[in-house]
Write a structure and sequence with these properties.
The chain contains 17 helices and seven strands. The chain has about 400 residues and is of the alpha/beta class. A hairpin with a 2-residue loop joins strand 3 and strand 4.
Length: about 400
């Protein structure tokens, strides 16, 4: 429907001209309510005219078998507060309004407002107070739960959606949340998988919960990802969890496992006293900032010469995991950091923690996944293509061209 904005401006001018004195905030809100009331009632009367097939007082309605039968009041809640509408009726009771459906008590967009507030980590009580303060609308806790629960099916569909046949990089990590489980509150792991597809776009592949992070559980997650359509993954970036590489190899045997350098640094610093942490961290840099893998190995030897007497476990940690810590050296320096850290998933986890920090605990796994999904939906809307992705694609084509063609079906 095309709106005549000039005519609308004229109506506004007339409404404002009839009001004495300057228009304050309260008066503006009242005016908007009146305009909304008239707009909705005019539209509802138009719907009834279309349903009956003739205009009010039109002789065409005589003997038609149905006619107008007054109206009934209906209170609708929305961002303008409460608006009482006069909803027209027909004598036969056949009229079903589309704009404001029967039993509808909230204007379109109001539910989205509640969901948006919920997705930002606000509790039910906070949402109630906010809606009361901003719009003068009282909303029950039960209604908020009912509205946010409508997301459940969306979460289920998202969690089971088909995935791309090829992901260049997949990051796997977990964050810990407090969750009520079997009648008591306990720490539970939320597993997160983020993939970079062949176009260089990041996407969250799914969320899973378990009592703790473990290779066996990740095996189940990887199997699910494969069942949802992933044929191949070129690089899987993980933390140093024992047994993790073997779980990956079981499901995606050709995937290159890259242990996260940031996790390796953190694990190394766990052996160091507080005063020397900065110095040790600086001495680790030449290893992962080296131009080539042989240079990195020399840097590790130099590190061992300096620190083995005091902290022998650090060089041993790097040496024992060398094969999974160094695959990124095959790529140009511009994209190495993308490959050797799980920053993509840790950044997401950090944003999620800010959202859930005000909550003591989640009443159920379902409630946790619901909020996390909504948070992810908001956060990922801002994601863009990875910088330097063209260079990465060229290098992947050189090192894994046949696999890429096979996965994409080219």
């Amino acid at each position: 429907m095309k709106v005549n904005l000039n005519r609308f401006d004229q109506l506004l001018d007339e409404a404002l001209r009839d009001r004495p004195g300057p228009l304050d905030e309260a008066s503006a809100a009242e005016l908007m309510q009146q305009l909304a009331k008239r707009l909705y009632e005019r539209a509802l009367r138009g719907e009834l005219t279309h349903h009956l097939g003739y205009e009010k007082h039109d002789s065409a309605g005589r003997g038609s078998g149905n006619s107008r039968n007054g109206s009934s009041p209906k209170t609708i809640k929305g961002e303008l507060g409460k608006v009482v509408l006069e909803v027209p009726r027909d004598r036969n009771g056949e009229f079903e309004p589309q704009l404001i459906a029967k039993h509808q008590t909230r204007l379109l967009g109001f539910d989205e407002k509640m969901i948006s507030l919920y997705a930002r980590g606000m509790s039910t009580r906070d949402i109630q107070a906010h809606l009361q303060e901003m719009y003068g609308v009282e909303v029950s806790a039960a209604l908020i739960s009912e509205v946010t629960n409508e997301v459940k099916e969306e979460v289920k569909a998202w969690q089971n959606r088909p995935l791309e046949p090829l992901y260049a990089i997949v990051y796997l990590d977990a964050l810990i949340v407090k969750l009520r489980h079997n009648g008591r509150v306990e720490n539970r792991a939320i597993f997160v998988a983020i993939g970079i597809d062949w176009q260089g776009k990041k996407q969250v592949l799914g969320l899973w919960t378990a009592a703790a992070e473990g290779a066996k559980f990740w095996l189940g997650v990887l199997t699910e990802l494969k069942n949802r359509g992933i044929r191949d993954i070129l690089i899987v970036c993980i933390d140093g969890l024992k047994g993790f590489p073997q779980a990956i190899e079981t499901v995606f045997p050709q995937a290159q496992v890259q242990c996260c350098i940031v996790h390796a640094i953190r694990a190394s610093l766990n052996y160091v006293n507080w005063k020397q942490r900065q110095e040790v961290a600086m001495d680790l840099k030449p290893i992962y900032r080296a131009s080539t893998e042989p240079q990195a190995r020399l840097a590790l030897e130099e590190f061992a010469l300096k620190w083995d007497r005091q902290y022998p476990s650090i060089a041993k940690l790097w040496t024992s995991n060398w094969e999974t810590l160094t695959p990124f050296f095959e790529f140009p320096e511009e994209i190495r950091k993308i490959i050797y850290t799980t920053n993509a998933v840790e950044s997401l986890n950090s944003s999620i923690r800010k959202i859930i920090k005000t909550r003591g605990s989640f009443p159920s796994e379902e409630a946790a996944l619901k909020l996390l999904y909504l948070a992810i939906r908001n956060l990922t809307a801002k994601w863009d293509t990875i910088q330097g992705w063209k260079e990465a694609m060229n290098r992947f084509q050189i090192s894994a061209g046949e696999r890429i063609q096979a996965a994409l079906g080219a």
